[in-house]
Amino acid sequence: MAGSASRPLPSRPLLERKLEAHLRFIYPERSPEDLTAQVIEAFWPAGSGARMRPTARRASAPPWSERDAVLITYGNSLIDGEHPPLTLLHDFLKVHLRGAISSVHVLPFFPWTSDDGFSVVDYTKVNSDLGSWDHLARLGADYRLMADLVLNHVSSSSAWFTQFLQDQEPGSGYFIDVDPATDLSAVVRPRPHPLLRAVETPSGEKHVWCTFSHDQVDVNFANPDLLLEFIRIMRFHIDNGVRTIRLDAVAFVWKEIGTSCIHHPKTHEIVRLMRTLADYAHEPLVLITETNVPNFENLSYFGNRNEAHAVYNFSFPPLMVHALLTGDSTLLNRWQMRMPPAPMGCFFFNFLASHDGIGLRPAEGYLDDEAIASMIETIRGFGGLVSMRGMADGSQRPYEINVSLFDTLKGTAAAGEDGMQFERFVCSQTVMMALEGIPAFYIHSLLATPNDHERVARMGHNRSINRHQWNYPELEERLADASTDQARVLKEVLRRIRIRAGQPAFHPNATQYTLQLGPALFGLWRQSLDREQSIFAIANVTAEPQRLSLVSLNLIAGEDWTDLITGRRIDVPELTLDPYQCVWLTNRPKRAMRAR
Q1: Which of 61, 145, 229, 376 is deepest in the core (most CB within 10 A)?
Q2: Which residue ranges does the record assign to the Glycosyl hydrolase family 13 catalytic domain (predicted)?
Q3: Which pLDDT belongs to residue 592?
Q4: Active-site residue 248, yes or no?
Q5: Exposed/middle/buried for 181, CB within 10 Å: 0-12, 13-18, 19+?
Q6: Considering 148, 248, 356, 563, which one is annotated as catalytic?
Q7: What's the average model confidence in pLDDT over 577-588?
Q8: What is the mean pLDDT of the chain?
């Protein structure tokens, strides 16, 4: 996709002052003026046609609304052995998700060597097994395209690391060589393998830093030339249609011996610098940070409205799953009561499933060891797996549960499988749609994909259990059969997405309050930005019918109230909610969005 038409350059001094402030903090030993000129040239190269706006976009007019919903998918989640998978994905969106999805997150589509794409060989190329930049540009013309900027590490087969192994520039300065005798016990570890990897170079043996795997070698942001490389990559992706940039594993990018090497102040400053670039870009860019950490740490990436536009709502999946497995919303409710609204001009990225597992660190402070152990035991009974992380004392703790979300909800902790998998699963998706923020749906959630143990055995990684590849013709046959799990789940979830898209009270920044309805129910009150529409979104998280007294909701007198999900007018003092039933009670019912 070509760059935008040339536009007048803004007043340079203000932008330069902002960039100089960022760069002076990150690289105090370097000239901020010189680095600022290099950053501007990297992001707006001469003659590229991409120009900056004179001022940042107003926070009061963000480029998102209640009509937004995101699909998360690999580029090859759908295959047929004949067509480029990216063309099949585009067809699936147009045929089966029409009018429901506004944005598509295509997980790393670059050449890679491990971790299903997150060990990137070349950020400027598309894996030929998936398709081409042209295919992605076509997706970007119809949907907001979200792509990963894998900041923390590159593949050990990348050109940069090959140069490092040969003592050649520029790669020789792009990695972190640490004396193995160094005390690294303070470093926060997401994986149990040794942190350092020994490699041979012409200048002798070196030990490089590898946070996630020995094939994923961490890069050295203490070298400003490396930062400039990533800024050029950002510009390249933007010029090829990317509008939402996901900063993968960003929490780990800055290393300082003697610290935890996570959430370093200079890491936050790098995010602020990227936000400044995004705010001055002509394109309507959105930055989202991926930080699978405890809730308070995660929220820090909003900064003072000057870092990420959005953060992943990582605490939601484990707490929502816990509520449905136990039939008790107490901990989910406690977490939501303590959640602040997103800052003006920002939003929460809500999800329940992704290409990774159900992270357990984000539930710290809410789920104790006993609750986690019970949840793990229950999900193992439904075919799930567990991945561990290393601790400073050499021990290991559960890091995430690896399982398909549909199979996660086969039953409950008390009764096991119970035949209410469909109802429980749809309840989970409906609660997500009601939360403040934008909902994101993993393709395998929309398709009720079961655990793929065969893929785990073939790939050798627990996370492969939820990275199934559907044969597209076979999938279409299942979707054409109304009795299959795939057809039932997709139809009902899409119906609710389309209802949601027409409700101003579900704007990502609409007011939200948590209701106190007891452990069997979970409820939210949402109010539109103009205060015209209210929605009481309430879910029964148990396997038993539950009574809901409408007096407890303070429904406004004189208003006509309707349940958006059933279309039923509410004219009784009490409702009985079936197991896992959800209601969206509103005083201003809007039409569902028509298929586009």
Answers
A1: 145
A2: 68-416
A3: 53
A4: yes
A5: exposed
A6: 248
A7: 96
A8: 93
